[in-house]
Design brief:
Blueprint lengths: L3 E7 L3 H12 L4 E5 L12 E2 L1 H8 L4 H5 L3 E3 L1 E2 L8 E2 L10 E3 L2 H14 L3 E4 L1 E8 L4 E7 L2 E12 L6 H5 L6 E2 L4 E9 L8 E5 L2 E9 L2 E7 L14 H12 L5 E11 L2 E3 L4 E2 L2 E3 L5 E2 L7 H21 L6 H26 L4 H13 L3 H11 L38 H4 L5 E5 L19 E5 L12 E6 L5 E6 L1
Parallel strand pairs: 1-2, 1-11, 2-8, 11-20, 22-23
Antiparallel strand pairs: 3-7, 4-7, 5-6, 9-10, 10-11, 12-18, 13-16, 13-17, 14-15, 15-16, 18-21, 19-20, 22-24, 24-25
Helix pairs in contact: 1-4, 1-7, 7-8
The structure holds flavin-adenine dinucleotide (FAD).
Flavin-adenine dinucleotide binds next to α1, β2, β9 and α7.
Length: 482
């Protein structure tokens, strides 16, 4: 058989593309296998949330995305009348970036190609076998069949993941019990509001501008919610439901894409089976409420990329891969909880409408609003301490695993800029520059960049912190006292 790859990524959606980028950045030999011959033109997702923008900024890529998207200072939970105020969040990106998934994927693919990722389109993985040293993959391609061997395989192949099924990872949860529909259409008479959300006893309608001349209409119609997910949506059906619920059809015409989607909800029992790992929709599916699936997939990939690279290239113990499951599966679980709650709130009964009104009222309380905004924006994700070698210094355990927002490190340097290479960062803080940084013992991680912040960071919560070992994904490894 030909050479053994370090990592084969299956699936070239946002999760697989970002993972391949992270692996290539670390010098891992990675190839990506994608069933589709061409990139997708339709966009399921329309949003990038604050943490995803931070993830991109941790590699210096945010500019490419920001210049193509439109920032909106609010997000939503179940389309409640009180929107979530992202503008108060502790991040450089206190907004939702409206950006169609097709553009996000094109930009991620551009980055992957720049980093030299081999992308094999038209390659469908159909068989998988693993042993102690690696994984064999087989499948079909235009030219016939293909067969490769890799030390590790990541299934980023979406909701119907073949990798998940072939590696025997159960995907428990619930089947579709109701469906909703969407249409990307031209509107002759668009609503005046930038984002329109209507919830009545007749159902719910959301209208958002997508691109010049195109709006997305999403409809939850109790009279149509038993339509099977595979039944095609017609423009007439969408128009009729919209008219009945919203009292107007907004002059909809020229559909670019009509689709029906459901509330099937499942979470992979584990994210790792030996040398096979799962990420993104392959690991978690849910009703697309609050615009989170793509975002959580990107964040899974960010967590997994450097760990897999450390095991493959830097002598890290394989147990580090278990921390991926340990850290990210609870995030998947929380995602499922919040989308189930949102689905319940999208019912059209009098009781649900009363509950919506009550929650909307509660969300006018700034502290509650902020808590939920942090949750939907994925800024509240923190991890338990990781077992990383620590020197003989007084550690501050409460810092371990925390996400760091970007911070100035003195003249012309920012924390995130120091993390662009995707390496660990040993960062000295505080005014006393004569104090040496802890001595780094050679071993894993071997690739640690050292930096001393010049002057004050002007961030109150860092007072008393002498310095930080920062993980490549921008979370704290450990911190020591000043
Ligand atoms: C109506 C709707 C609206 C949504 N809106 C949002 C939103 O606003 N915000 C948000 O964050 N998320 C949203 N989502 C969810 C989001 O689209 C997904 O979570 C996201 O696409 C997951 O990315 P992924 O890379 O994990 O999987 P996918 O995007 O599904 O990519 C998987 C890839 O694997 C390939 N593949 C599959 N099987 C194989 C195989 N055997 N061999 C090789 N390749 C294979 C597929 O062709 C595909 O390209 C929405 C979803 C829906 C349905």
């Amino acid at each position: 058989m030909a050479e053994v790859l370090d990592v084969a990524v299956v699936g070239g959606g946002p999760t697989g593309l970002w993972l391949a980028c992270e692996l290539a950045l670390a010098g891992v030999r990675v190839e990506l296998f994608e069933r589709r011959v061409e990139a997708v033109r339709e966009s399921r997702a329309l949003t990038l949330h604050p943490r995803s923008l931070e993830v991109l900024a941790l590699r210096g890529l945010e500019g490419r995305f920001l210049e193509r998207g439109r920032p909106l200072p609010t997000g939503h939970f179940a389309m409640l009348d009180t929107r979530l105020d992202f503008s108060v969040l502790d991040t450089r990106f206190p907004y939702t970036l409206f950006l169609p998934q097709a553009v996000t994927e094109a930009l991620l693919e551009e980055r992957a190609r720049e980093l030299g990722v081999v992308i094999r389109r038209g390659h469908t993985v159909e068989a998988l076998r693993q042993d102690e040293a690696g994984v064999d993959l087989e499948g079909s391609a235009d030219a016939g069949t293909f067969r490769i061997r890799a030390r590790f395989v990541v299934g980023a192949d979406g909701a119907r993941s073949a990798v998940r099924r072939l590696s025997g990872i159960p995907f428990p949860g619930t089947d579709v019990t109701r469906t909703a529909m969407l249409g990307d259409v031209t509107l002759g008479a668009p609503p005046a509001q930038p984002v329109l959300g209507i919830a009545t006893e007749r159902g719910g309608v959301m209208v958002v501008p997508m691109a010049p001349g195109i709006h997305r209409i999403v409809v939850n119609d109790p009279l149509r919610e038993q339509a099977p997910v595979r039944e095609p949506v017609t423009l007439e059906e969408l128009r009729e439901s919209t008219l009945r619920i919203a009292g107007a059809d907004f002059g909809m015409r020229e559909p670019r894409w009509l689709s029906r989607f459901g509330n099937e909800t499942r979470l992979a029992e584990r994210y790792r089976e030996g040398r096979v790992l799962l990420a993104g929709d392959a690991a978690h599916i849910h009703f697309p409420a609050g615009g989170q699936g793509l975002n959580v997939g990107l964040q899974d990939a960010m967590n997994l990329g450097w760990k897999l690279a450390a095991v493959v290239k830097d002598g890290a113990p394989e147990a580090l891969l278990d921390s991926y499951s340990r850290e990210r599966r609870p995030v998947g679980e929380a995602l499922i909880h919040n989308t189930l709650a949102q689905t319940a709130l999208m019912g059209a009964t009098r009781e649900t409408l009363a509950l919506r009104a009550m929650l909307s009222g509660l969300l006018r309380e700034p502290a509650l609003n902020r808590q939920l905004a942090n949750n939907i924006g994925a800024l509240d994700v923190g991890y338990a301490p990781l077992e990383v070698p620590a020197p003989e210094v007084t550690l501050l355990p409460e810092w371990s695993g925390r996400r760091l927002s970007d911070v100035e490190l003195g003249a012309n340097t920012r924390l995130y800029a120091a993390l662009h290479p995707g390496r660990w960062l040993l960062l000295g803080l505080g005014e006393d520059e004569s104090r040496p940084l802890p001595r780094w013992e050679p071993g894993w991680p071997s690739q640690v960049k050292t930096l001393r912040a010049r002057g004050s960071t002007r961030r109150g919560d860092l007072e008393g912190v002498g310095g930080l070992l920062v993980r490549p994904d921008g979370h704290v490894g450990w911190a020591w006292a000043a």
